[in-house]
Amino acid sequence: VFQRKFNLTVTGTFTQETRNIMKAARCGFPDVIPQEYSVYHKKWAKKALTYTIESYTTQISQDQQRSEFKRAFDEWARHTQLSFTEVSGTADLKINFYKKAHGDGSDFDDKNGVLAHAFYPTDGRIHFDDDEEWGVNASSKKDLYGVMLHEIGHSLGIKHSDISNAVMFPMYSGYIKDLRLHADDVAAIQESY
I want to staple 123 with a disulfide (CB 3.0 to 4.6 A). Which of 17, 109, 112, 119 is the partner? Predict the structure, then answer.
């Protein structure tokens, strides 16, 4: 099942190819075996959502982080009638950077394991592992924009995809210049909103 889920050669044995995928950096959301995209049964009841950045990483300037988060929200908005506005204080979506245990039952695991996780609507929490090396437009670090783009999908109610080029694929693909939503991601968000 694991080999099929991650588009590997299905051998039924623990191959090196399988080991490599199992060790890859990824989203912390549990895997299911969907056919292409899959959506959660809940969604936001409103179209105008707010977000706040409650804590930042010290690895990137706050202005760069705000810019990357806005860019990721704008990409989802481009394919829906949803809007996302940054606010201070109470918001629908709450972004934080944490290390290890942080009180939500989904502890982070140091570097190169789980990069981030988010909760389905209408929870709104989006968490990043601050032990990772975060970067902007840098292939040598974890791409903040790309990971945020994926986690926003969960916060909007989209589950993982089995399409390896989709943003909602659970394994981290590294920095991709001009990353945009895949047709599979667009189909999922348009089914929901």
Answer: 119
Give SS3 for 43.
coil
Tokens of 76: 């989802």
Q: 66-121 pLDDT, tens per residue?
A: 999 999 999 999 999 999 999 999 999 999 999 999 999 999 998 888 999 999 99
151 in active site: yes
- Give 57's DSSP letter: -
Give the span between the Cα atoms of 67 and 60, in whole angstroms: 11
HSE-up of residue 142 (Cα within 13 Å, Cβ side): 27
Element (H, E) at 126: strand 125-129
Amino acid at 148: M
Q: What are phi and psi of 8, to 5 degrees?
A: -95, 165
Residue 4 DSSP one-character state:
H
d(CA 36, CA 174): 21
